[in-house]
Amino acid sequence: MKKLAFLLTIFVAAATMFFACGGDETPGDITEKVYFSLADGEYDYVIDKLDTNGDEMTDEDREKLKKILEMSKGQIEKKGGIKAVSIVKEEISDDGKTCTVQAEVEYGNGDKEPANSKLVMVDGAWMLTVGK
Questions:
Q1: How far apart, in whole angstroms, are the C-alpha atoms of residue 48 and residue 62?
Q2: Residues 6+ apart with CB under 8 A from 110
Q3: Hey, which end of the chain has fewer CB within 10 Å, N or C?
Q4: Those residues with Cβ within 8 angstroms of residue 122's Cβ, 6 or more apart along the chain or in another chain
């Protein structure tokens, strides 16, 4: 019985750590993957990581967003694609509900520029906020 109680305690602790951290993807992971997905034309990943404030995104909304993202991809291509995304700082709020990520994007042509992202925890997953 003591062994079962011990194992249950370990399980609960592990589950708490897992959910408190927002699953497998950290805000920095998401920021990096969003940039590379954008460069690769994988728009669904980018769109799926946007916080919609609980509003349902229609197919029409998704298509409009894809057209906007295609323009961003064109800008990335003009710079020779993305060579690297470096996470400079990842700052999660004390309550664990928001995060700011400071990154640097290095393009194929050698240009570098800062890239800042704000994320919010939604149902146990980090989501990008837009215009907040």
A1: 9
A2: 80
A3: N
A4: 51
